[in-house]
Each structure stands twice: as structure tokens, then as C-alpha cells.
Design a protein that fits this description.
Elements lengths: L11 H14 L1 H8 L3 H7 L4 E5 L7 H7 L4 E6 L5 H8 L9 E5 L6 H8 L7 E5 L6 H10 L5 E3 L7 H10 L5 E3 L8 H10 L5 E4 L7 H10 L5 E4 L6 H5 L5 H4 L8 E5 L5 H10 L5 E5 L6 H10 L5 E3 L8 H7 L8 E3 L8 H10 L5 E3 L22 E3 L8 H10 L5 E3 L8 H10 L5 E3 L22 E3 L7 H10 L5 E3 L8 H10 L5 E3 L8 H8 L7 E3 L9 H7 L3
Parallel strand pairs: 1-2, 2-3, 3-4, 4-5, 5-6, 6-7, 7-8, 8-9, 9-10, 10-11, 11-12, 12-13, 13-14, 14-15, 15-16, 16-17, 17-18, 18-19, 19-20
Helix pairs in contact: 1-2, 2-3, 5-6, 6-7, 7-8, 8-9, 9-10, 13-14, 17-18, 19-20, 20-21, 21-22
């Protein structure tokens, strides 16, 4: 009996809604749907497409531009030379809907092609020019003239001076977000010009700008009424600031009535500054004060008491934070969604349990390099049903038993990073994955113990999609067990696993039918020649990193390995 409804009976607009949602969350699955029929192929071709330029892609560029002629939304390039690729792109019709351009680590910019991209009547809104060799102030001004409607620009890690940033301020009148990190020649004049000329300025990031002072940041806070985010690190005090306290951070923060995100790194954040932020009554939802000396428990308590609606909190590298200190602060953290307590060397398992128990909205906990694993957990174990992500690497006190208990407390865990945890073995991972059936991303890089990952696993399959075992002491038996227990794997990183042979790689490729990326760099027991026939049997593979530099002189072998 033939089905009464086919793909053609579903209105295209409905499919567009379905595919757009799927494309946003799981890009890989839209690729699978595009292979099912011509109608879905046509519809998926209209979804926003990001083109990342690289040397291997250049021969296929004309075909890609034809296929995505109406959907190229973002262009990204990190290769050392992109002149020929950009020439092809600007001569095509694919730039009509281009909104974002990301250029990083480029030897030289083809300025004529860049200008042509700027002539797009629909306008590029986001422009990234990071670590561009030869990007001068004058060249930056020319680019800004070509892109007058840009709303977000990132010019981090160049050798720009105030002249270049003044060009941004004068030519990008609609600018909302600017990142200036790593430009060591910039002074307060750059920030003052941006604040005076860009009336819609919402975000400013100035990390590693060693000449910028607190006066400049205070000026932006005082003058930019729409400011929502500011990110800064070590700032010096200027003589102007000493004589004119009107534009200090402490006195200006109260003027930022829309400020929702403050990020301090390695700064002098004392009680006076924290109290001034507390009194400002800002709509603050995210606050970071990492490695900031002079922070006291009293000042931190006053601040957190005033901002109980905080959703994201970063307090890396604070020696004042102990389990007892967290016990006194946790009552203010009921609305937290993310917290970072990495490198707080006095925190133990007790802090982890207090967070799970007292922060019901918590989704991500980052506790790298702490004493997690020390201390006893109080029974019964409270579950944090919303916790999806744990970043716990470099915790050398973390044991298999404790990791199993963490699994019991976080049954809906999706992402775990337990890299460089010296006392963990496969037993801990077994306990965790048997509690966390929704786990998709597992990072256990740097494990030096000889472990048998699959030993003791229940006779079932797991939903892991990404597995990173980089620089671990994993052998063939381990990788074979992983392949059989985790058939849904899409991305596997085996870089530096020197004990592997082609035997386990063959099992991995045969069992993981949807495998997309496989990194085998620095696997000294593997050779490209022995792997050529193995990887060619898995058509889903799109990115393969060879164990060593290809040395085969056989054309047939090379074609077998690089057929994708």
C-alpha cells in the first residue's frame, strides 16, 4: 500500500521552519536530509551557509558558490593567502546575502576584493580582522569606508594605533560592538573617540591594551548610555584620573543603566569598586572577576547579595575561596546558570555538592585544577537535573568513585571534560556513562595510565558523538571497545595515541557509520599507506588528519586515502 503523504505534500514553508531549527542545533543532520531527495536538497541549499576557505577547498570553490549562491551568509578564512579565493567569490553572485566576514592570521589582504565585498547593498554587519600581517591604520580606515554599515568589528592582535581606531569611530556610525584586544599602542583616545562618535555602542573589549587606563574605561561607561558589556584586564591609573575622578570606573559605573555583563581580569578590584557596582543597581546578569587581587569575602558578599539574579559568575584563581567561604556565599547564587571556580586551589567536593544542591538552575560547572575529589559527600546525593556541562580537567584528586557519584548527581549530563585527571581510569568513566545516558561529548585527553576503556561496560550502546583521547595511553583493545559501545560517534580525536595500530582504527571506522572527523596525527604506529583502504570504506568521513606527513609515491594509494 502506497503512503498517502509524501515529502511533496508538506508545504515548503513548513519544511523551512523544520530545517532551520535543525540546522541551528544539529548542522550535520541537515546534510543527511539533503541526500534524501531533490526537494530537500533545494531547501537545505537556502539555509544560511558559512564558507570556510582553506587550500584543499579551492578546487571546489566554484561549485560551492553556484550551489549556495543565495545562502552564503558568512565567510571565514584563516589561510596564509586568500587572494585567489576572494577574487572568485567577488566575481560570483554569492555575496548578495553576505553578512559576516571573518579573516584571521592572513599574510596580506587583497584590498580590492575587500572593497568589492563592501559594495554589497544589503551590507556586511560583522567584520573580523584579527592578526592580519600588514594591517596598517590607513588600510583599516579604507576598509571602514568600504563597510559603513558594520555593527560589530574585531581588530584584535594587530599593530594598530589611535589613528586606526579613530577611523573606525568616524566611519562606522552604526557600530555596536568592538574588540580591540592585543593592540598595545592604543591609548584612552581610542576609547574616547568610539564613545563620542558611536552612539549605539553596546560592547567594548580591551584586553592586553597596556597603555589604556581606567580613565578611558570610565569615560566609555560615563558617555555610552547603551553599553551592555565591558571586558578589560590590568589597567593602569593615569594622572588625569587622579585629578578628575569623574571618569574613574568606580564613579562612572552608575551611569551604565543597561550594563548586563562586566568582565575583570587580573585587575585591582577592591571592596570600594564592588560596593559601587552593588549600589548602581544595574541589570547585571553576568560578572567575571578572575585573578583579581584585593577582592575580599566581605566585598564579594556585598556584591552577590545585591545581584541575586546573576546567571553567570566567573571567579577563577581566588585563594580566598574555600569550602567555608562558598557555604556563606551560595545562598545568593540561586539563579546561576554557569559558574567558573577553576584554579581556586582550596575548593573540594563539598563545594561541588553545595552548588548542585543550592543552584537548581545551574547548567554548567567549571572547576579545573581544584581539590575536587577530596572530602566526603553528604548522603543522600541531591540531583542537579539541569546540569549539562562539567569541565573538571586537571583535578588530580578526582577518583573513579567520586566521578561515579558526580554521575548520579548529574543524570542529564551532555558534556564532560576530565582531561589530565591522573587518578581516573575506565572504571570511573563506566560508572559515569551508565548514570548519564544523554552524554554526547567526552574529553579525556592526557590520560597516562594504561586503561582498558571498554572493560566492564554494560552490553549496550551509548549516545556519545564526540570523543577526545588526545595524548592518552590508549591501545587497540581500548579503541575497539569504544567503537563497539559508541556507534553514534561523529568526531574522534586520537592524536598522540602512540600505542594504536591500524587494527583498532579499522574497527572504529566499521562500527561508526556516521563518523565525520578522525584525527590520527602523531600516532607513530600508524601509516597513511595502511589506513588508505580502511578510511575509504566510510563515505561519511569529511576530515581526516593523517598520522604523519604523507610519503607514499603511489598515486593509487594517495587517491584511496584522499578520495573525500
Amino acid at each position: 500500500m502506497e503512503p498517502t503523504t509524501t515529502i511533496l505534500d508538506v508545504p515548503p514553508d513548513c519544511w523551512k521552519l523544520i530545517l532551520s531549527k535543525l540546522h541551528h542545533n544539529h548542522h550535520y543532520y541537515t546534510h543527511i536530509l539533503s541526500l534524501t531527495c531533490k526537494q530537500l536538497l533545494t531547501l537545505t541549499n537556502t539555509l544560511p551557509f558559512t564558507l570556510t576557505l582553506s587550500p584543499p577547498l579551492l578546487p571546489h570553490l566554484p561549485a560551492l558558490l553556484r550551489r549556495f549562491s543565495t545562502s552564503l551568509h558568512s565567510l571565514s578564512a584563516t589561510a596564509t593567502t586568500v587572494s585567489s579565493a576572494l577574487s572568485l567569490i567577488v566575481s560570483s553572485a554569492a555575496t548578495t546575502h553576505l553578512r559576516c566576514i571573518h579573516l584571521t592570521d592572513i599574510d596580506s589582504l587583497p584590498i580590492d576584493a575587500i572593497r568589492h565585498l563592501g559594495s554589497n547593498p544589503n551590507a556586511v554587519k560583522l567584520l573580523t580582522l584579527c592578526n592580519i600581517k600588514g594591517l596598517s591604520d590607513d588600510l583599516l580606515v579604507d576598509i571602514c569606508v568600504a563597510f559603513p554599515l558594520v555593527e560589530e568589528i574585531d581588530v584584535s592582535f594587530n599593530d594598530l594605533s589611535d589613528k586606526g581606531i579613530l577611523g573606525i569611530a568616524k566611519n562606522l556610525k552604526f557600530l555596536k560592538r568592538v574588540k580591540l584586544s592585543g593592540n598595545v599602542l592604543l591609548t584612552d583616545k581610542s576609547l574616547m573617540a568610539l564613545s563620542d562618535c558611536c552612539l549605539d555602542l553596546e560592547e567594548v573589549e580591551v584586553l592586553g591594551c597596556s597603555v589604556v587606563t581606567q580613565y578611558g574605561i570610565g569615560y566609555v561607561m560615563h558617555r555610552s548610555s547603551k553599553l551592555r558589556r565591558v571586558s578589560m584586564n590590568t589597567l593602569i591609573h593615569s594622572r588625569v584620573e587622579m585629578s578628575n575622578s569623574l571618569f574613574s570606573i568606580e564613579t562612572s559605573v552608575g551611569f551604565c543603566k543597561n550594563l548586563s555583563n562586566i568582565e575583570f581580569y587580573t585587575m585591582n578590584v577592591d571592596d570600594a569598586l564592588l560596593c559601587s557596582i552593588a549600589k548602581a543597581n544595574l541589570p547585571l546578569t553576568s560578572f567575571t572577576a578572575s585573578y583579581c587581587y584585593k577582592v575580599s569575602l566581605s566585598g564579594l558578599s556585598t556584591f552577590l547579595c545585591a545581584y541575586r539574579r546573576l546567571e553567570k559568575l566567573g571567579l577563577e584563581g581566588h585563594v580566598i575561596l574555600t569550602d567555608e567561604a562558598i557555604k556563606g556565599l551560595v545562598c545568593y547564587l540561586g539563579n546561576l546558570v554557569e559558574i567558573d571556580l577553576s584554579y581556586c586551589y582550596e575548593l573540594t567536593s563539598s563545594t561541588f555538592q553545595m552548588l548542585v544542591k543550592n543552584c537548581p538552575a545551574l547548567e554548567e560547572i567549571k572547576m579545573e585544577c581544584t581539590l575536587l575529589g577530596d572530602g566526603e559527600l553528604c548522603e543522600p546525593l541531591v540531583k542537579g537535573d539541569n546540569i549539562r556541562c562539567l569541565k573538571l580537567d586537571s583535578n588530580n584528586r578526582l577518583t573513579d568513585d567520586m566521578l561515579g557519584k558526580i554521575g548520579l548527581m548529574c543524570p542529564n549530563l551532555v558534556y564532560l571534560d576530565a582531561s589530565d585527571c591522573r587518578n581516573l581510569t575506565s572504571e570511573g568513566i563506566r560508572k559515569l556513562v551508565n548514570c548519564c545516558r544523554k552524554l554526547e561529548y567526552l574529553v579525556v585527553a592526557g590520560w597516562k595510565k594504561s586503561v582498558l576503556f571498554g572493560t566492564g561496560f554494560e552490553d549496550t550502546s551509548y549516545d556519545l558523538e564526540m570523543l577526545q583521547l588526545e595524548d592518552g595511553k590508549f591501545g587497540d583493545e581500548c579503541i575497539s571497545a569504544i567503537a563497539k559501545a559508541c556507534p553514534k560517534l561523529l568526531y574522534v580525536n586520537l592524536a598522540g595515541c602512540t600505542a594504536l595500530t591500524s587494527t583498532s582504527v579499522k574497527v572504529l571506522v566499521e562500527n561508526c557509520e556516521n563518523l565525520r572527523e578522525l584525527n590520527m596525527s602523531r600516532c607513530s604506529n600508524l601509516s597513511s599507506e595502511s589506513l588508505a583502504g580502511i578510511v575509504s570504506t566510510r563515505p561519511s568521513l569529511r576530515t581526516i588528519t593523517s598520522p604523519i606527513k604523507y610519503t607514499s609515491t603511489s598515486t593509487g594509494t594517495k587517491l584511496g586515502f584522499f578520495h573525500q
